[in-house]
DNA sequence: AAGTACCTCAACCGCCGGGGT
DNA sequence: TACCCCGGCGGTTGAGGTACT
């Protein structure tokens, strides 16, 4: 069938960037007559353009309610969530962002947000961590596991200092989290002998200062996932800061459970530090997600069921309900947790 | 200053689905 | 039922701007 393109009949119509006088003509006509009947509009408005071009110019640029300028944090967050829900349905996404056009959102996604997600190791299509990007972590984790499994923990110089053990525990924690997120991509290395860890090496423990004043910090799933990347636990280089984290992890290992969520420290003003793209910024500790799977009533194409770590995910859920946990990552987490409605994943 | 590479985004293209005849 | 018209959508392009060498 293939009907002809709308502009075939309009031989010699102008293409390319619009001139101000063309804009003026189009706006003046629509102001007077309203829009619609795009095919006949150019002739009526005295424009040497095809109807589609006029429509596009009006919808994407001349409409009075167009909102221009940088996307706000809330807008970006909404785009990420809706893209995870809807995929490249730009017009549907745009319908949730007043003043933004599908074209603008599409462009912004392709030029900014897609890049950001890739930098964060997130697949912009599936919204899941990219397994290829995790392999270096996995490799290191496996290397350490192998070393421990060989009984070298006690005399291997690699582990003869606190930093190495801390790093090991961090790696294990990250590994566990990755297993929960992408169980198929991250093989289980739990089989390595964690019992060797259960006999707390005295030199390590003795060198870590206890801190009775510092309460157990909140467990932060958002912070957990922020740790996947180049900024792993950057706030925890000091022993005092690291101690609660160490205790949490240690407790879980002793109970032979998944490690607890790592600690993320709130700053004094109630702000949560988080990485946002390649920048560290502090975000208000309150706020709500404008759209969630539950509120939207939409299913999640592409969601995966995580068979393991459900307890941890429940903890995450509890944490996510906490008012201090709002973050860009929370939105990702909202979209990756199982719901009661059975999805295809 | 000039050349080149990269980035951004307005605009175009081709296809699709709904509605009318 | 078949065909056509139209509006709308998503993918792609390329001109202009910017950064880098």
TrEMBL record:
<dbReference type="Pfam" id="PF00249">
    <property type="entry name" value="Myb_DNA-binding"/>
</dbReference>
<feature type="compositionally biased region" description="Polar residues">
    <location>
        <begin position="285"/>
        <end position="309"/>
    </location>
</feature>
<feature type="region of interest" description="Disordered">
    <location>
        <begin position="284"/>
        <end position="309"/>
    </location>
</feature>
<dbReference type="InterPro" id="IPR017930">
    <property type="entry name" value="Myb_dom"/>
</dbReference>
<feature type="domain" description="Myb-like">
    <location>
        <begin position="63"/>
        <end position="113"/>
    </location>
</feature>
<feature type="domain" description="Myb-like">
    <location>
        <begin position="10"/>
        <end position="62"/>
    </location>
</feature>
<keyword id="KW-0677">Repeat</keyword>
<feature type="domain" description="HTH myb-type">
    <location>
        <begin position="63"/>
        <end position="117"/>
    </location>
</feature>
<dbReference type="InterPro" id="IPR001005">
    <property type="entry name" value="SANT/Myb"/>
</dbReference>
<protein>
    <recommendedName>
        <fullName>Transcription factor MYB39</fullName>
    </recommendedName>
</protein>
<keyword id="KW-0238">DNA-binding</keyword>
<feature type="domain" description="HTH myb-type">
    <location>
        <begin position="10"/>
        <end position="62"/>
    </location>
</feature>
<dbReference type="InterPro" id="IPR009057">
    <property type="entry name" value="Homeodomain-like_sf"/>
</dbReference>
<dbReference type="InterPro" id="IPR015495">
    <property type="entry name" value="Myb_TF_plants"/>
</dbReference>
<keyword id="KW-0539">Nucleus</keyword>
């Amino acid at each position: 069938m293939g009907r002809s393109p709308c502009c075939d009949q309009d031989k010699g119509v102008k293409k390319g960037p619009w001139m101000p006088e063309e804009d003026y003509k189009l706006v003046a006509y629509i102001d007077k007559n309203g829009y619609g009947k795009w095919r006949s509009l150019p002739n009526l408005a005295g424009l040497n353009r095809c109807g589609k071009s006029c429509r596009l110019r009006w919808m994407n640029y001349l409409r009075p309610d167009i909102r221009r300028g940088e996307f706000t944090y809330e807008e970006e967050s909404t785009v990420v969530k809706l893209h995870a829900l809807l995929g490249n349905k730009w017009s549907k996404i745009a319908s949730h962002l007043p003043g933004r056009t599908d074209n603008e959102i599409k462009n912004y996604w392709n030029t900014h947000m897609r890049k950001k997600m890739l930098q964060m190791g997130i697949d912009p299509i599936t919204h899941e961590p990219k397994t290829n990007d995790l392999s270096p972590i996995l490799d290191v984790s496996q290397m350490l596991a192998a070393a421990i499994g060989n009984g070298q923990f006690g005399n291997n110089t690699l582990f003869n200092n606190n930093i190495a053990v801390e790093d090991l525990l961090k790696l294990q924690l990250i590994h566990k989290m990755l297993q929960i997120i992408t169980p198929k991509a991250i093989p289980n290395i739990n089989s390595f002998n964690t019992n060797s860890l259960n006999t707390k090496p005295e030199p390590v423990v003795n060198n870590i200062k206890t801190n009775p004043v510092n309460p157990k910090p909140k467990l932060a799933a958002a912070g957990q996932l922020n740790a996947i990347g180049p900024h792993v636990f950057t706030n925890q280089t000091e022993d005092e800061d690291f101690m609660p984290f160490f205790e949490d992890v240690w407790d879980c290992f002793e109970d032979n459970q998944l490690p607890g969520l790592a600690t993320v420290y709130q700053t004094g003003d109630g702000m949560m530090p988080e990485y946002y793209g390649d920048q560290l910024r502090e975000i208000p500790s309150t706020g709500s997600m404008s759209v969630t799977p539950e509120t939207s009533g939409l299913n999640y194409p592409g969601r995966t069921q995580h068979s393991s770590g459900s307890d941890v995910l429940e903890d995450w859920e509890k944490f996510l309900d906490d008012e201090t946990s709002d973050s860009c990552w929370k939105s990702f987490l909202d979209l990756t947790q199982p719901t009661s409605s059975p999805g295809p994943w």
